[in-house]
Automatic annotation (TrEMBL):
Key words, A-Z: Secreted, Self-incompatibility, Signal
Family, similarity comment: Belongs to the plant self-incompatibility (S1) protein family.
Compartment(s) where it occurs, according to its Swiss-Prot or TrEMBL record: Secreted
Keyword presence, Secreted: yes
Domain of life: Eukaryota
The organism's taxonomic lineage, starting at the top: Eukaryota, Viridiplantae, Streptophyta, Embryophyta, Tracheophyta
Pfam families in the cross-refs: Self-incomp_S1 (PF05938)
InterPro entries from the UniProt entry: Self-incomp_S1 (IPR010264)
Annotated GO biological process: rejection of self pollen
GO cellular component: extracellular region
Coiled coil (UniProt feature): none
Protein name from the UniProt record: S-protein homolog
Organism (species): Mikania micrantha (bitter vine)
Amino acid sequence: MVFMSIKYLHQPQHFTIQGITYKIRVVNGFTNNSSLPLVIWCTSQDGDIGGRALQEGDDYTWYARLSFWAPTPAYSCTLKWDRARIMFAPFKVLKGRTPRSCGTCRKCLWLVKEDGVYFSNDDSKWVKEISWI
């Protein structure tokens, strides 16, 4: 573990004194949701981080910071649209690994559409991860 930490410290583009910062963004990608907003509510192990009612094209963005001396943040969100609900983890770190597949740009991007929830780390290649039930 010490060896891994020292090696990581020598990569300045990924480390600051405050830690490594990741962008988490959830976008309402509906094309025809009329007067029904997409409602999102998120929490972390530290408590409630809040929610929003998103109209078409609106987004909910926050940042997670990883550091060697603080607990690793994990977030869970509930999406509600009409009568459908989805719960998912937009940012989760498995012990000894990097967060999800957030990539070298450190972005966890989510696009919510009528048929489900899509993930990307570069805002161009989207992979469907969850379907509305």
